[in-house]
């Protein structure tokens, strides 16, 4: 518990010793060093030596083992330690991550990996845990490129079960490994499942964008089994236009928010969603009465009225085939259907593909 021992403001080194009088362990210290000398200096090191344990210390963010430990090769300084009194600060959350980033830039991939795993293990609820999971893929790309091992790690390690955000990003990154392994059918299946099982329209749009891009990178993409063949036929230029349309729909959708109608008094859903060329809107009426079902774009303009008549209580269904009042095909994007009945209303989103 705090207060902790702090080593700082010594004239030269914070710790200086002969190898024969080395500490058996030097841990859980806050080491703040501001001189140009190494943090820790050991002299008279024999040819045959044992490693000196400096793990679990808290170093300055500027700490660089190659210049601050002399000689570096005799010290084991990982993992780092963050004191409880500091662990809630943004600086403490960031320190290990930025050290890992520096190690990656210096091509010290072993250190980078150790630090990234430490961030995930010790700070799973921080934004840096998610960023560390992403950076592990970058470390793999720049080092051994063992994507199969990394994929298995993302899918099976208990580290990523600490919260929902980590589990979600690990699943996403495992699919990136599938792409790098050229397991394209597996990657396509993953995106299709993400599109169809997404909890929000926004997530579906992002998965569609990623799937469309994947097809542009695969030679002879039409050989891949797909539930969205229209995406397979895009040229790179067509994909860029499609991507821009989807991003515009995404921004407009976000401007409307996710909770269009917080209190939904009428049960309703449409399937499939996303869809092309048509979707069935199923709804239930608690009582007999007149029902109006209309489709709107994200500007709030009515596209078409699908139903405006008396219906008995119970389950009903109407179909929208992606056209307007003049039977003209509408553009791909996010649309809303509104069901208005005597007993209430509901408004929901749906995504039309082209």
SSE inventory with pairings:
Elements lengths: L4 E4 L6 E4 L10 E4 L7 E4 L8 E2 L4 E2 L5 H4 E2 L4 E2 L13 H16 L3 H14 L4 H16 L4 H10 L7 H17 L3 H14 L3 H17 L11 H4 L3 H21 L11 E4 L7 E7 L3 E9 L4 E10 L2 E7 L12 E9 L2 E9 L2
Parallel strand pairs: 1-3, 2-4, 3-6, 4-7, 5-8
Antiparallel strand pairs: 9-10, 10-13, 11-12, 11-14, 14-15
Helix pairs in contact: 2-3, 2-4, 3-4, 4-6, 5-6, 6-7, 7-8, 8-10
Would you give an account of this structure?
This protein is an alpha/beta fold. 38% of the residues lie in helices and 22% in strands. It is built from ten helices and 15 strands. The protein has a four-stranded antiparallel β-sheet. It has a three-stranded parallel β-sheet with strand order 1-3-6, with no helix packed on it. Strand 11 and strand 12 form a beta hairpin. The relative contact order is 0.07. About 3% of the residues have low confidence.
